[in-house]
């Protein structure tokens, strides 16, 4: 059964919880972690992290957020703030492991993405993201999942701004094509359903 402090914190807005956490109330920050932990891990998995790696980076991001909680001013969402921290931590990890160089492939040389079969016309976002090239998946995840601007993404990836914009544009076009139902699929579904 939840304690009184847990019930009290559960009804507070994120900004209020941040204020309490800034004064040292760990239970308030624990409520923030409870609310937003799965979203942070989900973003990291969409960026390419394995589940255990996503857990590790999310934990590091929350620790960094707790240490810097007084810096959060409520100008954006708390979840967005922590997503940016998590994305940057994950990018640093990639850089340390020297995997980032693979994302700086020239635009003409990156047609080695996965093509999934069209047997099932239903597809989810995660599967769609997996079909993108690594550079497209990473830039789309940073811009739309972590809320970074194109310029922030370019700085984080050490890529030219135009290259980032190209990766994002191509990635979004591929996602739209994969996630949009084809006319044949819609007609086929109507024939079988009625």
Provide a descriptive summary of the structure in words.
The chain is an all-alpha fold. It folds into two domains: 97 residues, Rna Polymerase Sigma Factor, Chain: A (Orthogonal Bundle), CATH 1.10.1740.10; 95 residues, Arc Repressor Mutant, subunit A (Orthogonal Bundle). Helices cover 66% and strands 0% of the residues. It is built from ten helices and no strands. Helix 3 crosses helix 5. The longest helix has 21 residues. The radius of gyration is 20 Å and the shape is elongated. The N and C termini lie far apart (49 Å). The C terminus is likely disordered.
Q: Can you count the beta strands?
A: 0
The CATH superfamily of the largest domain bears the name RNA polymerase sigma factor, region 2, helix turn helix motif
Q: Enumerate how many helices there are, as a single number.
A: 10
CATH class division of the largest domain: Mainly Alpha
Mean pLDDT: 79
Strand content: under 5%
The run of helices and strands is HHHHHHHHHH
CATH architecture of the largest domain: Orthogonal Bundle
Terminal CA distance reads 49 Å
Radius of gyration: 20 Å
Judged by helices, strands and strand pairing, the structural class is: mainly alpha
């Amino acid at each position: 059964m939840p304690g009184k402090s847990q019930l009290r914190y559960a009804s507070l807005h994120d900004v209020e919880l941040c204020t309490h956490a800034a004064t040292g109330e760990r239970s308030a920050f624990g409520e923030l972690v409870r609310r937003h932990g799965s979203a942070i891990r989900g973003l990291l998995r969409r960026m390419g992290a394995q589940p255990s790696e996503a857990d590790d980076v999310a934990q590091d991001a929350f620790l960094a957020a707790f240490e810097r909680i007084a810096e959060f001013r409520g100008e954006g969402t708390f979840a967005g703030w922590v997503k940016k921290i998590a994305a940057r931590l994950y990018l640093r990890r990639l850089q340390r492991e020297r995997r980032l160089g693979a994302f700086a492939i020239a635009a003409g040389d990156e047609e080695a993405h996965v093509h999934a079969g069209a047997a099932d016309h239903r597809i989810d976002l995660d599967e769609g993201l997996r079909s993108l090239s690594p550079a497209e998946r990473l830039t789309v995840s940073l811009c739309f999942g972590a809320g970074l601007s194109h310029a922030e993404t370019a700085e984080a990836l050490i890529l030219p701004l135009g290259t980032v914009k190209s990766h994002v544009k191509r990635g979004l076009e591929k996602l739209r094509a994969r996630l949009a139902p084809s006319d044949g699929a819609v007609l086929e579904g109507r024939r079988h359903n009625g």
